[in-house]
C-alpha cells in the first residue's frame, strides 16, 4: 500500500511539472514578439540620430511656417528633417537662425 501511495505521489508530481512547464512555455510564446522589439530598436536608433543632429540618410528641406499669436502673424523659416527607415517615418523641425 505504501509503495502504491509513493508511486501515486511521484506520478502526481511529474504531471504537475509537465503542466507547469506547458503553461510557462505558452506564456513566453504569447508575450514575446520579436518584431515589436526590432521596431522599437529601429525607432530608438532613429531618435538618437535626430537628437545628435546626425542627418545622414535623411531628407532635409526648408519650409516657411506661419504662426498666429494674438492676431499677429509670425513667419518662421525651418528645416524639415524627414526619416523614412524600416517602415518608420519621423519628422523634425529645426528653426533656422
Question: Can you summarize this structure?
Answer:
This protein is an alpha+beta fold. It has two helices and three strands; from the N terminus they run ααβββ.
Question: How would you describe this protein?
Answer:
This protein has 97 residues and is an alpha+beta fold. Helices cover 49% and strands 34% of the residues. The relative contact order is 0.12. The longest helix has 30 residues.
Topology:
Layout: H1 2-31, H2 34-51, E1 59-69, E2 72-85, E3 88-95
Antiparallel strand pairs: 1-2, 2-3
Rounded mean pLDDT score: 81
Number of helices: 2
- Beta-strand level of the residues, as a percent range? 25-35%
Q: Strand order within the widest sheet?
A: 1-2-3
Output the keywords:
alpha+beta, 2 helices, single chain, 97 residues
Amino acid at each position: 500500500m505504501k509503495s502504491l501511495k509513493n508511486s501515486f505521489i511521484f506520478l502526481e508530481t511529474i504531471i504537475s511539472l509537465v503542466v507547469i512547464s506547458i503553461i510557462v512555455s505558452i506564456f513566453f510564446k504569447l508575450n514575446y514578439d520579436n518584431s515589436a522589439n526590432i521596431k522599437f530598436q529601429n525607432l530608438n536608433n532613429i531618435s538618437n540620430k535626430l537628437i545628435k543632429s546626425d542627418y545622414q540618410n535623411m531628407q532635409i528641406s526648408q519650409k516657411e511656417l506661419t504662426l498666429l499669436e494674438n492676431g499677429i502673424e509670425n513667419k518662421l523659416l525651418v528645416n524639415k528633417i524627414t526619416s523614412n527607415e524600416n517602415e518608420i517615418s519621423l519628422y523634425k523641425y529645426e528653426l533656422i537662425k
